[in-house]
Structures are given as C-alpha cells and as structure tokens.
Design a protein that fits this description.
The longest helix is centred in the N-terminal third of the chain and has 24 residues. Strand 13 and strand 14 form a beta hairpin. The chain is globular. The protein is built from six helices and 14 strands. It is α/β, with parallel strands linked by helices. It has a six-stranded mixed sheet, with helices on both faces. The protein binds glutamine. The site of glutamine (GLN) has 12 residues, from helix 2 and strand 9.
Length: about 240
C-alpha cells in the first residue's frame, strides 16, 4: 500500500485561517482510499531530510510569525527544500508561505529573506490589505481542462513574479498576487504557492486529490473516486453567486 508522507513546516506559527485543515483534508482523503498517511512537523531548529517526504507544506502567517521563522527557514531548511524540489517532491506554500518560498518580503525598511525556491518577491507597500473571496482558473497536468480554485485572501504583501515564472492561475474574482496583474500564485516545477486560504484543500477537493496523486506519482484519474457531491454543489452555487 502506498503512503503519502507530508511534512508541515512550522505548524505552530504558520497556521493562520485554519490552514491546518489542509493537512486534515489530505489525511482523510488518503484514509478513505486505504492510502497510508504520515504527517510530521518541522519547527524552528529542526533539520529536514529532503528524501523523507512527498509533500512539504507551509501555511500562512502574520508578518510577525514570518519574521520569527524566516531565518530558521534559511539556516536549517533552505538547502533541504531545494534538494527535495529538485528530486520531484511537491512543495506547497500558502500566503505567508508563498512569500517565504520566494526571494524576499519587504516590510518598510525591513527585508524578510525568503529561500529563493521560486522566482518572486513581495513588498508590503502602503496600500490597503487585499481581502476577500477569490476564484482563480488553473490548468494542471493530468486534468481534462481548466478548473476553478476558490478561497479567501487577506494579505498586505504584493507579490511580483520573476520574468518567465508561471502563476498558479488567472484571477476570475478577487485580487490575486498584487491586485493588478490578474495572476495568482506561482507554479514552478513541483513548487506551488497561492494566497488562497479557506482552508484551501477542503474548499477544493479536486485540488487536494491532484496534490495527493501527484505527490504519489499517480495521475489524478488513478485515484479511487470519493463522494464529493456536497463539495461539488458548494462550488457550483458559489460559481453562480459570483456570476462565473
Ligand atoms: N503576513 C502576510 C501578509 O500580510 C501574509 C498573510 C497571510 O498569510 N494571510 O501579506
């Protein structure tokens, strides 16, 4: 039997907006299918084994929490995360997580360093926080067409992708990376980042399955189907309400 091995980075600090629910979602969907699930946490000071996990995950955080973990991420986890991504492990960052996977997060005079796993940088700026419901259209390998991710964003940082760096999706409703460019998140190799909370995965069961399958080296269609009628109906009514 296969086992999905997940490592949550800083589960105590990088866990705003119930982002921990993403882990529960993966666990349940594995269990319901008879797939094993192993979750480990890596906090400050903990070294990472790049070969020991199929998915590395970092949730969102307050600016203060990000400041608390940034140097530890650089000193004890950066090299392992680069090695993990290079061998094909998935890395997923949510909100504060996507910011720290990039080059840096500038907060006024302070520069919070990121680990440079994806080519993007983030600036706090003077404008209002970008808050509200958001829907993005994404195209991912192994799916038969574009799909919609739904979530909630609340970030002060504006993220700019480096030249040639692909976003995760196109904004249908909401602000996205910077409120201007019409793009949301990042998708570079096996590294994915997004501003979407919700938590993200319970709101988007199909994406949880895409991650699960991809992390295990399977096509999404190879996973045993689950009864997602409630989730699908929620998506459908949200789409209608948003005029999509
Ligand atoms: N602190 C970051 C910002 O405000 C990320 C917030 C979050 O994770 N929701 O931009």
């Amino acid at each position: 039997m296969s086992t999905l091995r997940v490592c949550a980075l800083y589960p105590d600090l990088m866990n705003i907006y119930a982002d921990r629910g993403n882990m529960v979602m993966l666990q349940r969907r594995c269990e319901w299918r008879g797939i094993g699930f192993e979750l480990s946490g890596a906090g400050r000071g903990d070294e990472l084994d790049p070969g020991a996990h199929d998915l590395f995950y970092m949730g969102g955080g307050q600016d203060r929490d990000q400041q608390l973990v940034a140097h530890d991420l650089l000193d004890t986890k950066r090299d392992a995360l680069h090695a993990a991504a290079a061998r094909g492990a998935l890395v997923l960052g949510i909100c504060g997580g996507i910011q720290l996977l990039g080059d840096s997060y500038e907060l006024g005079a302070e520069r919070v360093p990121g680990i440079g796993l994806v080519d993007l940088h983030t600036v706090r700026g003077d404008g209002p926080r970008l808050i509200g419901n958001v829907a993005i259209e994404v195209s991912l390998s192994g799916l038969d067409g574009p799909r919609v991710l739904a979530g909630f964003e609340n970030h002060g940082g504006r993220t700019t992708l480096g030249p040639g760096t692909a976003p995760l999706g196109r904004v249908l409703r909401g602000h996205g990376n910077d409120g201007r460019s019409g793009v949301e998140g990042v998708h570079q190799g096996t590294v994915l980042g997004t501003y979407l909370h919700g938590p993200l995965l319970p709101k988007n069961a199909w994406f949880a399955d895409w991650l699960l399958a991809t992390a295990l080296g399977l096509a999404p269609a190879e996973l045993a189907p689950l009864d997602d009628r409630l989730e699908d109906a929620a998506h459908e009514s949200a789409r209608k309400a948003a005029g999509l």
